[in-house]
Amino acid sequence: MSIADIQKSAETRMGKSLETLKANLAKIRTGRAHTGILDHVQVEYYGSPVPISQVANVTLMDARTLSVSVWEKNMGAAVEKAIRDSDLGLNPVGMGDSIRVPMPALTEERRRELNKVVKSEGEDAKIAIRNLRRDANEAFKKLVKEKEISEDDERRAQDVVQKLTDRCVVEIDKLIVQKEAEIMTV
Predict the structure, then answer these.
(1) Residues 54, 123 within the same domain
(2) Looking at per-residue confidence, does 104 or 71 come out higher?
(3) How many domains are contained in the chain?
(4) Is residue 109 pLDDT above 70, yes or no?
(5) 132: CB partners within 8 A, 6+ apart
(6) 58, 76, 106, 181: which could join 35 in a potential S-S bond, CB 3.0 to 4.6 Å?
(7) The pTM is what?
(8) Torsion-angle region of residue 110: left (phi > 0), alpha (psi -120 to 50) or beta?
(9) CATH number of the domain enclosing 9
(10) Which of 102, 127, 143 is the last residue of a domain?
(11) Minimal CA–CA distance to 121: which of 41, 12, 22?
């Protein structure tokens, strides 16, 4: 494996860590509605659990209400039950072949708890990024030990990976600040 391969691998994996953080932050409920909130809710569909997006269309009615339009009429009750039983604390209202899902306003205490969760997610992402940096640096050390690269090349390669790590950490901090602001906005 060459220096470029190791750096490219580290960059790709750090990018995936950032994408994972973005996905995890999108699941954290603020006071506003967004269609991604229901992504991880599973519905029983002919004996197997599937995401709501595979049995219904989720759209925004307004800033605080989601509309779930089921594709099969007999799935309405199952989708409504799945949303109600999820850990999101939502109370869906069935309206014929569609379901309204109003987003309850968050209390100040709940907002603070959510901020702690956001910080924890950010810290987990930073740990993942640092672990990837460590793995890359160990790979560079291994190349030096095998006399495939010089110590100077190792040092330069480590500097490149460190700059990449720093960029990712800054990006994580930006995402955390944005999500905290979103949560605290009443």
Answers:
(1) no
(2) 71
(3) 2
(4) yes
(5) 10, 13, 14, 17, 165
(6) 58
(7) 0.69
(8) alpha
(9) 1.10.132.20
(10) 102
(11) 22
Same structural domain for residues 13 and 76? no
pLDDT grade, residue 72 (50/70/90)? confident
List the structure tokens of 8. 């490219």
Strand partners, 66: 60, 101
Q: How far apart are CA 45 and CA 40, in angstroms?
A: 15
Domain check: are 15 and 61 in the same one? no
What digits encode the pLDDT tens for the residues 3-42?
A: 889 999 999 999 999 999 998 888 776 667 777 778 778 8
Same domain membership, residue 98 and residue 115: no
**Alpha-carbon gap, residue 168 to 121, rounded angstroms:** 14
pLDDT at 171 over 80: yes
For residue 47, the 8-state DSSP code is T
